[in-house]
């Protein structure tokens, strides 16, 4: 029997029905379809509309679909991690709300906040519980309702973000499949360039914070862009070198979808072909914790047992990292 690794055994996504297109945004702020496509690669985003709906309303349908398609009873789940920067509430954790909505009663659940890197942070955290043998079936969710913290009067940020998410099931494997290695990094000094000014304990919500529109994403786009281009490419390259992977060994790169130009830079640095890169930014925009699992869900039918896959992300914090995994199953459609 080989070493116990954590392998993905199923994945299910959810994107809300309503679309916000570049043409819609042209009517809301001073922008053009051409500017947005050239600078970001985004054409449309999914938006969760409706009173009283939050990130758990994106995550719960994904989790319910995941349980159904993997034939898993909710009682079998022993841990749920939800990566999100847009929790339903400051507390309790959205993972708890999702567990309740999905009938999961035997798990301990918590949220992970690492901005756009939260999904890979969660995946790696969950993998350690599987590798130790203490937990057998863990659900990892990456989901965000970015429309809740996007200022639709600010053209430099409102064109970037969308709502969506996906959930995956992680189980033990002794056959060599699953998560092989990871590099995760943080630089807290990056906070200055990307954060939400109010709503935390430093600046609780008040009339003043609302009047100053401080409950939305604050981003210095160029500073974030420069950081992201170098760090995401560096970390993808580092994980290849650390694991003696050549470009031809990699079946798929799954990059965080924030900006097409950042994805292109990472692809070039790894020396892989564009056909090996999962790219759906034009349809979803940046769904923060949703981008990487939504890609895996959309490409699931094309993935083969044994495929070498590199996940790469960066985000507010600053946070960044890469995960190297071997895919563990053939889709029934393969
Ligand atoms: N439409 C038209 N013009 C615009 C728009 C818009 N939507 N937004 C900005 N502009 C203008 C600016 O005002 C500026 O005009 P000026 O030259 O007259 O001052 C001009 O376009 C150039 O602006 P830049 O900010 O230099 O444009 P840039 O090429 O850097 O693109 C962008 C901006 C797309 C935001 C880019 O910087 C970027 O992608 N940054 C990274 C964002 C990111 O990846 N964030 C991820 C983290 S999110 C998280 O962790 C939650």
Strand numbers in spatial order across the main sheet: 1-7-6-4-5
Largest beta-sheet characterization: 5 strands, mixed
At CATH level 3, the topology of the largest domain is Peroxisomal Thiolase, Chain A, domain 1
- Model regions low in confidence, pLDDT < 50 over at least 5 residues: none
What count of domains describes the coordinates? 2
Distance between the termini: 28 Å
Bound molecules: acetyl coenzyme *A
Sheet-strand content, in percent, reads 15-25%
What share of residues is helical? 25-40%
Instruction: Tell me how many strands there are.
Output: 13
Question: What's the shape?
Answer: globular
Which class of secondary structure composition applies to the elements? alpha/beta
Query: Can you tell me the CATH architecture of the largest domain?
Result: 3-Layer(aba) Sandwich
Oligomerization status of the protein chains = single chain
Helix segment tally: 11
What is the fourth-level CATH superfamily of the largest domain?
Thiolase/Chalcone synthase
How large, in whole angstroms, is the Cα Rg? 19 Å
Average pLDDT rating = 97
What is the CATH C-level name of the largest domain? Alpha Beta
Strand/helix succession: EEHHEHEHEHEHEEEHEHEHHHEE
